[in-house]
Amino acid sequence: MTTKTTDSISTSGRVITSSTPTNANSSAEMIIIGSSRNGTKGLEKRALRGVADPKRYVADLSKAISEEDQWVHHVWTDGMATSRTFRYDPENMKTASGVKGMFGCTSVIIASQRGTYLSHIWEGPTFVKNAAGDESKEDVFWEHSFESLREGNDEDPLDQSFPLTYLTAPGEILNTESSPVIFIITPYTLESERQDDHIMTELRYEDRVKELARGLAKLVPSVEPPVIVGYDRADENATEADELEQEGPAGFAGRAIVEVEQKRWDISGPDGRSLCFKRPPFVGTWRLWVEDRPIYQHDYVIDAGPHKRDGPFYGPALNLLDVRYRGKKPGKLNITPLFAARKMAAELGD
To answer: What does pTM read for this prediction?
Structure first.
């Protein structure tokens, strides 16, 4: 059961189709979410469950992520990309992680049913080689973006930048059975760049971001074409702030957040007896925010049988139609910030 913004692409962006898509599981090469702020109305009805004020909501999530130290750290290692991986707790869990402080940089985020991968790619030297905005060489771009993500960053002093080649291996969080989805968050073109530099693409580095998307689609078994999302450049302080202000984008600008909620779900038959012969499966939801916009949401149910590697086995999602036929629908999952865990537990029940 998946709810996602691709249902609303006609009003919020465009789909770039290809007769020979790089991802065999996709009918389009990539998806670009446009800059229209009027294209989320349909999504709000389906995905913004209980969120009356998205800006406040994202600011609250940001505070919780800061308290838990679950942002991607901007660590300078000769301009190479850095990343961070968060594995979901196999038991009842609510969490969120993200990247902030983006006022020109790019982030690759890959979310799945087992964990979230987030990265930070520097604007320079990856895309530009100097303050004048001159384009970097092709080999520099690939080395500091795709190759750094694929192979990991050994120079990361925090030792958090795991290689994508490892994370896509069998049993890992970005393998096929975990249903990963690739996102690339990158800045829009400024009006001054259109006027002075004659850059007419909606995204500042659109051509190279598309190249990056094609490379990632061949490396990561994403269940969707890579989703490219633009963001507005803002003052650096606003992109780091967790507090809203009366005016301005502080508290939600320059960031992308993945929030996750997961709990065990015991399925009962008409006679009230559990149909889970071993352990109840997990029912979960993850959702991506970029600034104050909900971009994509995925609801899932996964088996929780024994697994020799790390406890629960996160296999292919159960067929929800089959589950419903057995006599019980999953309860509504209301995602709220981390510090509201007690309220969340009360709403879902044990």
So the answer is: 0.76
